[in-house]
Write a structure and sequence with these properties.
- Helix 3 crosses helix 7 and helix 7 packs antiparallel against helix 8.
- The protein has 14 helices and no strands.
- It has one domain.
- It is mostly helical.
């Protein structure tokens, strides 16, 4: 339970880091935090214009615009938090070498700032759901347990990658490549029903067992389809996410011992 005690003792530092991360993302930008709205919105517009021609209107009989928004915004939270979390220890190398504090605060603050941006971006989903006539129902409250599951999964991955990144210099490029592939391995711009197990084979199976498929499908149930998510499937992803967090924390604490030395070597090498 020392992890919770440490986080509580350093809660002000965590809060400060989250604020710094949010400001840092838009530092020097004229529009500032408005990019939380504009980035996913511009992505949605591009996919909405281009992909219906490639997929034959994408999702037949459904509002493809809402389908895109409810997929891209949760994906953006995951992708941005993992990307920023991966490089977070190296990016804070200066303070790590000078001051003691629980190092896990650094990747955690990246995920927490990602949550704040996600919640702000959810206003886009709400506006478009109301504006297009899709509407909202009381099922939207399911967004909060879904967000908890997604945040745990994201945190576990960020803990692992941020620690490994200190030792393996190529990891950031590898992560960027994998995330690009993972986006197309998740039903964000297409519907899983467009494929079948017989035609897509192992690819269909991989997409089905992808935890982000369940998470994004759950968001769509809450926002778009006005129904509860599949809590059995979401529960399995929750258990998996807990395992990832626990394993991630163990790996992080094990590798943490060499952070100062590796970061010093990195500075000398640069």
């Amino acid at each position: 339970m020392s992890i919770f005690k440490n986080l509580y003792n350093y809660r002000e530092l965590l809060k400060t880091n989250v604020k710094k991360d949010i400001r840092g993302r838009y530092k020097g930008s004229f529009l500032g935090i408005l990019w939380s709205f504009l980035n996913p919105l511009l992505q949605v517009v591009v996919y909405w214009i281009v992909f219906p021609y490639l997929f034959g209107r994408g999702v037949t009989g459904e509002n493809y615009l809402i389908y895109l928004i409810t997929g891209i915004i949760p994906w953006t939270f995951f992708m941005t938090s993992v990307n920023m979390g991966t490089s977070s220890i190296k990016a804070n190398g200066g303070i790590i070498k000078k001051v003691y504090f629980p190092r896990e605060i650094i990747p955690l603050s990246q995920v927490l700032s990602g949550i704040v941006n996600f919640l702000i971006s959810c206003l886009i989903i709400i506006i478009f759901c109301i504006g297009t006539g899709t509407g909202l129902s009381y099922h939207v409250i399911a967004v909060f347990p879904i967000l908890i599951v997604q945040s745990l999964l994201t945190l576990g991955i960020a803990l692992i990658l941020s620690a490994v990144d200190v030792y393996v210099q190529d990891i950031e490029n590898i992560v960027a490549f994998i995330l690009n592939m993972l986006m197309y391995g998740t039903p964000i711009i297409y519907h899983l029903s467009q494929f079948s197990a017989s035609s897509a084979g192992i690819l269909y199976t991989l997409i089905t067992i992808n935890p982000l498929t369940t998470i994004i499908g759950s968001y769509r149930n809450a926002f778009m389809y006005h129904q509860w998510p599949d809590f059995a499937a979401l529960g399995l992803v929750f258990v998996f996410s807990l395992v990832v967090v626990i394993v991630g924390y163990i790996i992080f604490k094990k590798l943490e011992k060499g952070f100062e030395e590796e970061l010093l070597v990195l500075v000398v090498w640069l």
